[in-house]
Amino acid sequence: KIDETAWELVHEGENKPWKVETRPHNSIEEGTRQVKDADGYFVENAVRMLPGWSLAIGVNQATHQALEKLGTSLVLRLGGEGHRATLERCLALDNQWQELRTVSQQNYQQGVEQKSRSLAYLVTPGIFERLHTNKGRKQALCRAYPWEWKLAHTVNKNQQAGSLVGFATDKAVPISCRIRDQDDDSKSIPAPQVFAATPGSVYYLEQPESLFQDSADASGQAKRWRELGYSELLWLKNPILAKDEIHD
Questions:
Q1: Quick one: which of 240, 245, 164, 159 has its CA closest to 208?
Q2: Which DSSP symbol is given to 62?
Q3: Would the CA dihedral through 216, 220, 224, 227 be positive or negative?
């Protein structure tokens, strides 16, 4: 049971620890002090963290060991304009995350063994992408829940029933990446845009199911999304209690 006061904001930024600034810019003609005739003025949105807040990233063990050799308080370039940021380990956050992962894995395993109802909480943007053939052309489609999770309540008799009872989500998050140019390895080009399920989405299943991205048969691209930290789930057990449990 969660008290109503627990939902109230205590510190500034708990609901949104950043602000967006719209900033105009000028592009100067090379070798002159004149603004370019074409595309001379442009506007960009700058995302700024509120005072007292930081960004956290997760790294694998090999990356952690490499960073440890470089010492503490490393400086890196962050953002399109390359602003400097300090990078240091947050041991307290590391311990909290490991505790959450342990509980989540225990809930998942118990749900599989007992075939019990479970909730899957999406921690990071969920990229659920699959290739489809339409009129002879292959097209990548994204949706708000994993393609391998079948709906428990089917629309017609031809559909196979699964474990996914329902889910709560928000509008998709567009993600744009860059890939290496095949003709020139020193350059990068824009990659096709994908649309991810928003973090905080919750999925209700009759019993837990793993992601295809985590399986040995997953494609290289699907595995890379997981290696980058996308589609991270935390599992909660038994969201719907029996009458005697509610009474107790």
A1: 164
A2: H
A3: positive
- Per the CB < 8 A criterion, the answer to whether 239 and 117 are in contact is yes
Torsion of CA 167, 173, 174, 175, to 10 degrees: -100
Check whether 142 has a pLDDT greater than 80.
Answer: yes
Quickly tell me which residue has 């007292």 as its tokens: 52
DSSP symbol at 157: T
Query: Could you give the angle at the alpha carbon of 108 between the alpha carbons of 120 and 221, nearest 5°?
Result: 65
Q: What is the pTM of this model?
A: 0.76
| pLDDT tens-digit map of 19-41 | 998 888 777 777 777 777 766 67
Among 45, 58, 15, which residue's Cα sits nearest to residue 200? Answer: 15
pLDDT greater than 70 at residue 239: no
CA 55 – CA 93 distance, rounded (Å): 12
Backbone φ, ψ for residue 76 (5° rounding): -130, 165
Amino acid at 69: K
The amino acid sitting at 248 is: D
Pairing relation of β-strands 178-180 and 41-49? unpaired
Q: 222 near 140, Cβ under 8 Å?
A: no
